[in-house]
Amino acid sequence: MQRNVDIAIVGAGPFGLSIAAHLRGCGKSMRIFGNPMQIWRRHMPQGMMLKSAGFSSTISDPERSFTLRHYCRQEGIPYHDVGLPVRLDTFSAFGLAFQQRFAPELENVQVAAIEPCDAGFLLQLANGETFTARKVVVAVGIDYFRHLPEVLAHLPPQRLTHSAEHHELDRFKGQRVIVLGAGASAFDLAVLLEDAGASVQLIARRPSVKFNFEEPLARPMLKRIARPMSGVGPGWKQRACTDVWPRLYRYLPDDFRLRTVRDFLGPSVGWFMRERAEAVRQMLGYQIEQAHANDSQVELLLRGSDGERRTVNADHVIAATGYRSDVRRLPFLGAHLVDDLAMIGQTPRLSAHFESSRRGLYFVGPIAATSFGPVMRFAFGAVFTAPRIAKHLAA
Q1: Residue 265: what pLDDT?
Q2: Looking at domain 4-145+323-394, which of 3.30.70.3090, 3.10.20.90, 1.10.8.60, 3.50.50.60 is its CATH number?
């Protein structure tokens, strides 16, 4: 293996794979590390459908020669740009096929440590190998940033898990399970747990559930003008999120950027899940005040929006409570390296080319949302990211 390379990419999801695809043939030496499409293949429940439309559930290559549409046509899988939900296993398989085509040199090994050195950065792999890279792109996605409500933090792992810990759900057959959350991951998980034979109750702080609008395959011109389609859904704000904000977002006030990343396109459920989701037992508008566990069950003390208090019990609690980007939670970055980074909130402040204040260290994906806008929370964000950062890295 090369002991000194120009570029190291840490992460093999849509962002990392897209950047690798755009860097092919650029004349720079490169290595890319990670378990390809891991979050989709290992940390989302089997049987799930993606909330994103077909055309936006893609990975970027320079010629747009191998999109999800191309893959589905090749494999004989039904596909439409909008109006037909994409199966999780289809997207995962597409990602693996993309990797084989555009990043066959991918090394399925974890990066254990990154330290600054005279040559740029010294990287140590989980297998003990060390090498240097002039530039490093951190493209690790969301898995390091799982969020659990503080009120539950003391519960033992046999009674409390995050939704990302569950791909196969058979072990919950016959169990009473509480799912926490009001977004797609919560309702998808609740429905699939019911299918697996669990008795499920969903609890959420929000007083109501938001469902995405179903988008027909053909839309009248007036509707296309009133609600133009974008990679994160229809609407002018959504279109600005994908087409305008990535170029301008860094110039907006910090408080606006942080608030918008947190609140824009908040929890919602796919339109195709409405009938099945509404069949799930729900307690909406309830806060968890206390949580207790013993050898046999979990007990939650809840307070409703009207002040009513209720106690619920279950064998297990699954928190589908999302992710919160925080660069300090990346275990392979040394504390002294992180301490030197200019920050916005808990994330690195980035240049127009995704470079942090530490020269040669780049961050892409959801952790870059505070610098480029909410589209970076979605795989579709790679469409903007990959060509821009690749052009800069190849210069």
Answers
A1: 85
A2: 3.50.50.60
Closest CA to 60 of 379, 352, 368, 375: 379
Residue 145 near residue 325 (C-beta atoms within 8 A): yes
Q: What value does the mean pLDDT take over residues 347-375?
A: 98
Structure confidence at residue 321 (pLDDT): 96
Single-letter amino acid code for the residue at 329: R
- Give me the pLDDT at residue 2, please: 64
| Domain range list for the chain | 4-145+323-394, 150-210+268-319
Beta strand 199-204 with 281-284 is parallel
Average pLDDT over residues 99-123: 97
Dist. CA 25–CA 36, nearest whole Å: 21
Q: How far apart are CA 374 and CA 243, in angstroms?
A: 12
Confirm or reject CATH 3.40.190.10 for domain 150-210+268-319, answering yes or no.
Answer: no
Rounded Cα–Cα distance for residues 114 and 125 (Å): 9
pLDDT reading at 165 higher than 90: yes
Backbone angles phi, psi at 367, to 5 degrees: -70, -15
SS (H, E, C) 58-95: CCCCCCCCCCHHHHHHHHCCCCCCCCCCEEHHHHHHHH
> 234-291: per-residue pLDDT in tens?
889 999 999 999 999 999 999 999 999 999 988 899 999 999 998 899 999 999 999 9
Question: Which token pair is 78?
Answer: 């039904």
**Nearest 5°: CA angle at 91, between 85 and 92?**
145
Q: What pLDDT is attached to residue 81?
A: 92
Place 229 in a pLDDT band, splitting at 50, 70 and 90.
confident
CB 194 within 8 A of CB 172: no
Kindly state the tokens that stand for 123. 């990287």
Same fold, 4-145+323-394 and 150-210+268-319: yes
Q: Is pTM beyond 0.85 here? A: yes
Q: What is the C-alpha R_g of the chain?
A: 22
Q: How many whole angstroms separate alpha carbon 236 and alpha carbon 254? A: 23
Instruction: Give the angle 16-19-24 at the CA atoms, nearest 5°.
Output: 125
